[in-house]
């Protein structure tokens, strides 16, 4: 299977990071299906790059008549997600190993909703339209394709966190991800509406979400673990790419730990949902 995930999808620490990130992301959205046009209770739903399966399990629990499936390239994460579905007795949730960069093993017009979150670290910039063409193919006429992406990993009072994030943006841009013209962000949200229109979607709509992870917030712990795990995993690739020396990266990381633990620390993580409808046949 084709795998271009920017981090190791079979790493246990990465799975833990995604569990933390999933929790705060879904809460910020107001729930797994919040903001979307109402789906029928018997809708067929697919989540791309589902990771440990949190979004699928939340949607399946909230809508027991829906069939909610998740796919991911990681065998470890799919095994974990299937185990959680069995433990929670969610018979309407299912998971399978599949790469979104290859033709999807689903029939045309299979799903009422195809959902995808944070593909900017998975899909190279030249492959986005191909991936969305496949999404369009498997979506039922009148069904929805929804993308959730973020341009910034964080906006905060920490200079070290800002510098580490910038190192990540530069690294990901050099590896072929995102559309930033200057390497100061992931540069993805402004492209999404055009992609959806290109593959044929109509009635494009969007919605912003913001997670406050300031020192006195509930989300602080989840976002701290997200950054801590992510920066540790990115250290060697960023150093090997010549974007930072080991000494520079370690100095920024230690300063990040100090600044994010200050009582005066303030931070937000903005993201955007955008969705479109597959045209009905004439």
Automatic annotation (TrEMBL):
GO terms for molecular function: methyltransferase activity. Residues 45-143 form the Methyltransferase domain. InterPro entries: Methyltransf_25, SAM-dependent_MTases_sf. CDD domains: AdoMet_MTases (cd02440). This is Methyltransferase domain-containing protein. The lineage of its organism: Bacteria, Bacillati, Chloroflexota, Ktedonobacteria, Ktedonobacterales.
């Amino acid at each position: 299977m084709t795998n271009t995930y920017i981090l190791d999808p079979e790493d246990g620490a990465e799975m833990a990071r995604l569990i933390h990130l999933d929790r705060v992301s879904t809460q910020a959205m107001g729930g797994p299906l919040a903001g979307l046009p109402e789906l029928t209770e018997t809708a067929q739903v697919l989540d791309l790059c589902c990771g440990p399966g949190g979004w699928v399990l939340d949607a399946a629990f909230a809508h027991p008549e829906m069939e909610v499936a998740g796919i991911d390239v990681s065998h470890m994460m799919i095994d974990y997600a299937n185990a959680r579905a069995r433990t929670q007795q969610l018979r309407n949730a299912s998971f399978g190993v599949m790469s979104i960069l290859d033709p999807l093993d689903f029939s045309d017009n299979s799903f009422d909703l195809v959902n995808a979150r944070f593909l900017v670290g998975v899909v190279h910039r030249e492959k986005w339209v191909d991936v969305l063409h496949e999404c369009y193919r498997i979506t039922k006429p009148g069904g929805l394709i929804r993308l959730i992406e973020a341009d910034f990993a964080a906006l905060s009072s920490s200079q070290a966190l800002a510098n580490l994030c910038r190192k990540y943006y530069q690294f990901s841009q050099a590896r072929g991800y995102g559309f930033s013209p200057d390497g100061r962000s992931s540069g993805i949200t402004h492209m999404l509406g055009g992609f959806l229109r290109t593959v044929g979607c109509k009635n494009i709509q969007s919605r912003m979400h913001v997670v406050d992870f300031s020192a006195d917030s509930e989300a602080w712990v989840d976002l701290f673990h997200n950054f801590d795990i992510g920066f540790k995993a990115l250290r060697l690739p960023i150093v090997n790419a010549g974007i930072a020396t080991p000494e520079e990266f370690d100095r920024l990381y230690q300063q990040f730990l100090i600044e994010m633990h200050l009582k005066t620390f303030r931070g937000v993580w903005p993201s955007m949902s955008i969705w479109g409808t597959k045209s009905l046949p004439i």
